Amino acid sequence: MASAALHEAAAGNHQQAISDATLALKLSQHREVTAMAALSLAQAGDITAAQKLAAGLNQDLPLDTLVQRYWLPTINAAVALERKDPQSAVRMLAGMGNLDFGTISNMVNVFLCPVHIRGNAYLQQGNGLAAAAEFQKFIDHYGLLTNFPWGALARLGLARALALEAETDPSAREKARTAYENFLTLWKDADPDIPI
């Protein structure tokens, strides 16, 4: 259910993400369930609930390396991003690059959480080059994501990043067009009611 909440948040189905996260927390209070639920809630716009869960993780697991160095910075960065504060999000994720491809769980879909948040933070900042580099990581390592939506949505993020670059670098325009075409080709058979 926590994984489903992350899927729904990624696709823009915020109410369903909140519902799935809430149900996941009723079923389990395990560290990963709580962390994924908090991240889902932050991305779905329920930052109060996300912060409450993050505070609980911090209080209950002050010596847990994954909580302190992976989950909490990622959750807090997602909250900052939802608050339209991309500078804080980028700062919170600084130094986490060495964890981007680390195995943190037996749940494959939690790979690259900081990369997703960082890429979107750079987009909010208007830093197309940095955003493109983050989204390219998904494309270069697509095997890590199996069917998780961030793999497909990275192509949209890359296209948006390249479109930002095209504002000052005309050579990026064709790259942006190609990236949008790649995303639309991949997404053409998606359910038509997906908000993203």
A few lines on this structure:
This protein is mostly helical. The protein is 70% helix and 0% strand.
List the keywords.
mainly alpha; single chain; 196 residues; Serine Threonine Protein Phosphatase 5, Tetratricopeptide repeat
Structure commentary:
The structure is a single chain. This protein is mainly alpha-helical. The chain has one domain: Serine Threonine Protein Phosphatase 5, Tetratricopeptide repeat (Alpha Horseshoe), CATH 1.25.40. The protein is built from ten helices and no strands. Helix 2 (14-27) packs antiparallel against helix 3 (31-43), helix 6 (86-93) packs antiparallel against helix 7 and helix 7 (113-125) runs antiparallel to helix 8 (128-140). The longest helix is centred in the middle third of the chain and has 18 residues, at 65-82.
N/C terminus separation: 20 Å
Q: Total number of β-strand segments?
A: 0
Number of helices: 10
* Strand content bin: under 5%
Helix content: 55-70%
CATH architecture: Alpha Horseshoe
Low-confidence stretches: none
Describe the global form. Answer: globular
Counting structural domains, the number is: 1
Give the class from helix and strand content and strand pairing. mainly alpha
Main sheet characteristics: none
Can you write the helix and strand succession as a string?
Answer: HHHHHHHHHH
What is Rg?
16 Å
CATH class: Mainly Alpha
Task: Please name the CATH topology.
Answer: Serine Threonine Protein Phosphatase 5, Tetratricopeptide repeat
Overall pLDDT level: 91
